[in-house]
Write a structure and sequence with these properties.
The two termini are 25 Å apart. The strands form two sheets. Strands 1-5-3 form a three-stranded antiparallel β-sheet. A three-stranded antiparallel β-sheet has the order 4-2-6. It is globular, with a radius of gyration of 18 Å. The relative contact order is 0.16. Helix 5 runs antiparallel to helix 6. By secondary structure, the protein is α+β, with helices and mostly antiparallel strands. It has two domains: 39 residues, no CATH class; 139 residues, Pyrimidine nucleoside phosphorylase-like, C-terminal domain (Aldehyde Oxidoreductase, domain 3, Alpha-Beta Complex).
Length: 199
């Protein structure tokens, strides 16, 4: 909601929230997204039928090691784990497996029980999963209470104390943009007639 307010579309956070909710509920946001895809020669059928995307052979939960609240999430650790699963590449000629990834990631502040999934891991290769698990496990920090992590607001693996005077709001916006661009890189080959989004 903050990005809508900061862009000047709404005068307050409440107004921004109402604007976003209206566009999401009336379908206009989805149609605008499809317009962007069509304008670049993409196939919008993947939006209407997500089952057309490739599916991983296996899905496994990452269980919470104890009861508590999600205090911080290190996005860089998750990204590294997903990369090791096969959703990234080190050299340009290497193949990216677009079926691989994580979903249903528990948000910061969420209360979890011991054994409850922190995320779902989509993978094909058991050996690669074992390499990735340590990164996924270390990405989460759980706390006894649900206080917001004011001094350790993480984005892309960086805490507030690591980025100088950047505010939690600035870090959050950077993190949202980073997630959006990362998602577009993965979706690009399926939505558009180009092998990859180049940033």
């Amino acid at each position: 909601m903050e990005i809508v307010r900061l862009a000047g579309v709404a005068g307050s956070t409440l107004s921004a929230k109402q604007t976003v909710q209206r566009h999401l509920s009336d379908g206009s946001a989805l149609e605008k997204f499809k317009d962007l895809i069509r304008a670049q020669g993409g196939d919008t059928s993947y939006v209407d039928h997500p089952e057309k995307f490739p599916q991983a052979k296996h899905i496994r939960k990452l269980p919470a090691p104890k009861r508590g609240y999600v205090h911080t999430i290190n996005a860089a650790m998750i990204a590294r784990g997903v990369h090791l699963l096969g959703a990234g590449r080190d050299l340009m000629h290497e193949k990216i497996d677009y079926a691989i990834g994580v979903s249903e990631i528990k948000k910061v502040g969420t209360q979890v029980k011991q054994g409850e999934p922190l995320m779902m891991i989509h993978y094909d290769d058991e050996a690669k999963l074992e390499q990735s698990l340590e990164y996924f496990k270390n990405a989460y920090r759980l706390a006894r209470n649900g206080d917001a992590p004011a001094a350790d607001c993480r984005a892309g693996g960086l805490a507030k104390r690591d980025v100088g005077v950047a505010s939690p709001r600035k870090i959050r916006l950077d993190w949202i943009l980073h997630r959006f661009l990362a998602g577009m890189q993965l979706l690009w080959p399926y939505l558009f007639n180009e092998p990859r989004l180049h940033l």
